[in-house]
Design brief:
single chain, about 500 residues, alpha+beta, Glutamine Phosphoribosylpyrophosphate, subunit 1, domain 1, Rossmann fold, six-stranded antiparallel sheet, 18 strands, about 40% helix, globular
């Protein structure tokens, strides 16, 4: 997890510095600027991004004598070991960046075929030519805009607002060349693939193998690492696998740090406590009240760059627990984010017939780029923490899409069990109370989904909401109006509003 800003055309150092200063939280350990007549590129990294690197590390120009290219990069690669072996890239500082540049040298824009298990936003340039790209799901954020013939790029919206008038979200699954032309290199499937997996025992084994490999490839414990633990199936599976890896690395008595948050004695706190006892983790709880949540909302909206209520609520909880983990010295946090999108875990999906599930899953995945995934990236990086989410895996998603719909939402009686096959795959690893716990959004489980709407219903009048809606019809509630006002204070009422994705329900 890192950040970058770029100006291409006739760059001015003052503008670049103004942009770069806005994203210092994304990487305070290493920062470097590359400048040429046609392009300026600035990149920063956290300690956890390049563990063990020397103080004199060169971010630009550290990729081998045969590579005359510069790269700005924010991402994680699940298939790095396989590709690195094929292309002879050694482990070490900037290993993923070196691999991507080697792929670009060998494959050109065909390199994206090899990055199907990677999350990334990147810019590659030799000083004249330019390539800009963002991963298929848009997990890594990227924004751009044109002004006075210059192209401006940045990891966050806030980095562009000081220097240009109109900012756009860079489209997911696309790349741009130096002419400013945008091309699509990947897209979500329009129709379901043929069902390829039907043997239940083999499916269970495959899912466990894929997720185990995803954890192993993304986790090395070179810096102090912990795991978020809400007590739901997603975070519990990741914490359990990480705990095993922790024992392998540090010995059977070592205890993985885990963290849970609740607004009061919430359901998350209770279930996380149960799971922590099961794992014998080094568990920490942060129990907060409404006042603590309200106090951080302005920061949350600023760093999140959204006013969607469902997202802001969950992000507030995430911000608080991430900050708490950082105070405890944690530099990397594991997250169970992605399980609902991969295995159809959202409760609203139950209202649709199984024949519609694929289309609804694609719709759900389509929300990631400007809604659900923002919490993962922004709330942890706001506290300078690297986050690792093994369930957001290209290999796992591809496998899941070829499963029968009834394995993801299994009919039972008059209802359905969401993420049934995922639960089945890990039922012998976790307590039954965790495996079969009903899905709750993070904001519901942590308690913020209950207290915040009630609070804003009292403090904002019907007249205030009506007046706002007459000018901005996208504002759907009093709670959303409060977040909207904070957002527009920082980012204005222009194109920035178009970058905000609103969830299907409040």
């Amino acid at each position: 997890m890192s950040g970058f800003v770029v100006i291409y055309g006739n760059p001015k150092r003052g503008q670049l510095d103004a942009m770069f200063n806005r994203i210092s939280h994304r990487g305070s350990r290493w920062q470097e600027v590359y400048a040429s007549p046609n392009i300026m590129m600035a990149q920063n990294y956290l300690d956890a991004d390049i563990p063990g690197a020397s103080d004199d590390l060169k971010i630009f120009g550290n990729h081998g004598p045969d590579i005359d290219l510069k790269i700005c990069y924010d991402g994680q690669m699940g298939n790095w070991p396989e590709l690195a072996a094929r292309y002879g890239i050694p482990r070490g500082p900037l290993q993923e960046e070196s691999l991507i540049l080697k792929l670009y040298q060998k494959q050109g824009t065909g390199m994206f075929h090899y990055l199907n298990d990677a999350l990334f936003a990147l810019v590659i340039s030799n000083g004249d030519q330019l390539l800009v790209a963002r991963d298929l799901l848009g997990i890594k954020t990227l924004f751009y805009g044109w002004q006075d013939g210059n192209l401006y790029l940045g990891s966050e919206l806030k980095s562009l607002v000081p220097v240009i008038d109109e900012v756009f979200e860079f489209p997911a699954g696309c790349y741009m060349d130096q002419k400013g032309q945008i091309f699509r290199f990947a897209e979500l499937p329009q129709k379901p693939p043929q069902v390829a997996h039907t043997d239940l025992n083999q499916i269970v084994e495959d899912i466990r193998d894929i997720i185990q490999r995803s954890v192993t490839n993304r986790l090395d414990f070179q810096v102090k690492t912990g795991s978020l633990l809400s007590g739901g199936i997603d975070s519990s599976v990741i914490a359990s696998l990480a705990s095993q890896a922790y024992h392998n690395r540090f010995g059977p008595d070592a205890r993985l740090p885990t963290f849970a948050l609740g607004v009061g004695e919430s359901q998350d706190i209770i279930n996380a406590r149960l799971m922590a006892r099961h794992l014998n983790s080094d568990h920490a709880e942060l129990v907060v009240g409404l006042e603590e949540v309200l106090a951080v909302l302005p920061e949350v909206v600023y760093y999140l760059e959204s006013f969607d209520p469902s997202l802001v609520r969950s992000a507030a909880s995430n911000f608080l627990i991430s900050r708490y983990a950082r105070e405890k010295g944690i530099q990397v946090l594991l997250s169970g984010e992605g399980g609902d999108e991969v295995f159809c875990g959202y409760l609203y999906l139950k209202q649709y017939p199984l024949a519609e599930l694929f289309a609804r899953q694609m719709e759900c995945l389509g929300f990631l780029h400007n809604n659900a995934s923002l919490r993962l990236d922004r709330m942890n990086l706001a506290n300078s923490i690297r986050v690792v989410a093994p369930l957001i895996s290209g290999e796992l998603l591809e496998y899941s899409l070829a499963l029968p719909a009834e394995y993801k939402q299994k009919p039972e009686g008059e209802g359905k069990i969401e993420k049934w096959i995922f639960r089945k795959a890990f039922e012998d690893l976790l307590p039954p109370e965790v495996v079969w716990r009903l899905k709750q959004e993070f904001s519901q489980g942590s308690g913020s989904a209950e207290v915040l709407p009630r609070y804003f219903e009292k403090v904002i009048s019907d007249a205030e909401l009506s007046q706002a809606q007459s000018q901005f019809p996208m504002v759907r509630s009093k709670e959303e109006l409060y977040y909207f006002q904070i957002f527009t204070e920082h980012f204005g009422h222009g194109r920035a509003l178009d970058t905000v994705g609103q969830w299907v329900c409040l």
